[in-house]
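User: structure tokens for this one?
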Amino acid sequence: MNMLYNSDNYTVVQFVVPDEAGPGAAHAAGRGGYEIVDKFARKEIFIDGALAESFKAGVQALIENSPTEEAIDEFIGRYVPLMQQPLVLH
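Assistant:
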């Protein structure tokens, strides 16, 4: 688990789960995804696969332009309509 972003509005955490590597494997490829939390709506989403790759590419393109916090929040806000899971703290 790696916290990538934390603002007043959103938190983004990356999860990487190493694949099982057999003997002689050069390295273990990872799988996982991103958890995006909307703090005000108190909802979250976990994205993986193609959607996670799209999210990663969008973030990398955004970072190249030294974005403001508002620009990053605006980008993350595109994923808010997908959030269906209520945030539960335990």
